Write the structure tokens for this entry.
Amino acid sequence: MPSNVKGEGMRGLSVFISDIRACKSREAEKKRINKELANIRSKFKGDKQLDGYQKKKYVCKLLFIFLLGNDIDFGHIEAVNLLSSLRYSEKQIGYLFISVLVGTTSDLMKLVIQNIRNDLTASRNPVHTSLALQVELHVVFFSIHTEICLLFFLSHFLSL
């Protein structure tokens, strides 16, 4: 997937996915994932400031690792930081990560809501507004869905 066109593809992500797909066993896959998690953790904790592209690339890797069925216990704040970016691709990955990995009861939701509010009110970019609306609807739906399920469960068992 590497491309000569600027802005297309993330070579490091492509190589990582290829490495995972080439693993012959679950143990080899787990070893490669743990190696990548250690690398990402060191990059996020390092003294060197990461640019938006690097944050986006590492957050995408974390999202991929999560989708493979692994727990992710770091990187959430970096995803929230991507929400402040003026670049669509960075903001998009930040919102995607938030909608998949950050629960509505998370302490980070205050920061996420502030970023959504900024994109809805202060942003003059309709694409940023659209991203914010999509995540807001996802968060609201999840909250309402959870409450409705809880009410149904309680009302069903209280009537027995």
